[in-house]
Write a structure and sequence with these properties.
The protein is mainly beta. Helices cover about 5% and strands about 35% of the residues. Strands 1, 2, 3, 4 and 5 form a 5-stranded antiparallel β-sheet that branches. It is globular, with a radius of gyration of 12 Å.
Length: about 70
């Protein structure tokens, strides 16, 4: 995925993992993303109302600038 294509809602995969990942937020050099959890057949943060006031986890990685 090109850096210019990284926007909220975009889905990508890392070369070492075949599970899809979904961009939640991006700033100039950091991307927060969610992962598909095959065991629950859903995105980890798909139902925010159900997990409200619970501890949640999301993933973060860096991105090369445009």
């Amino acid at each position: 995925m090109e850096a210019a294509d990284i926007e909220p809602g975009a889905v990508f995969r890392f070369p070492h993992d075949d599970r899809p990942n979904r961009v939640l937020l991006r700033d100039s050099d950091v991307v927060m993303y969610d992962a598909w959890w095959p065991q629950i057949k859903a995105w980890g943060l798909a139902d925010l109302a159900a997990i409200k006031r619970q501890r949640i986890s999301y993933y973060v990685t860096t991105v090369d600038g445009d």
